[in-house]
Amino acid sequence: MAIIRTTWESNSNKDLLKIGTLRKIFDNTVREAKVLYKGMYNDLTTNLYEFKDTRMAGFDQAQEIAEGQNIPIQTPQRGLDKTYTQRFFGTGFRMTFAMDFFNQYNLWKRWAKDLGKVMAESKDVEAFVLYNNPTSTTLTCGVGFDTYALAYATHTGLKPGSTADNYNNYGNAALSYTALQTMRYYFKTLLDDMGMWMGAQPDTLYFEPTLWPTISEFFGATGKPGTFSNDPNIVPKMGLTPYECPRLTSTTAWGVLAKKDSRFDVNMFTSMKPRFFTKDAPDNTQDRIIVAMQMFGYGFGDARTVWVGKT
Question: Full-prediction pTM beyond 0.85?
Answer without folding.
Answer: yes
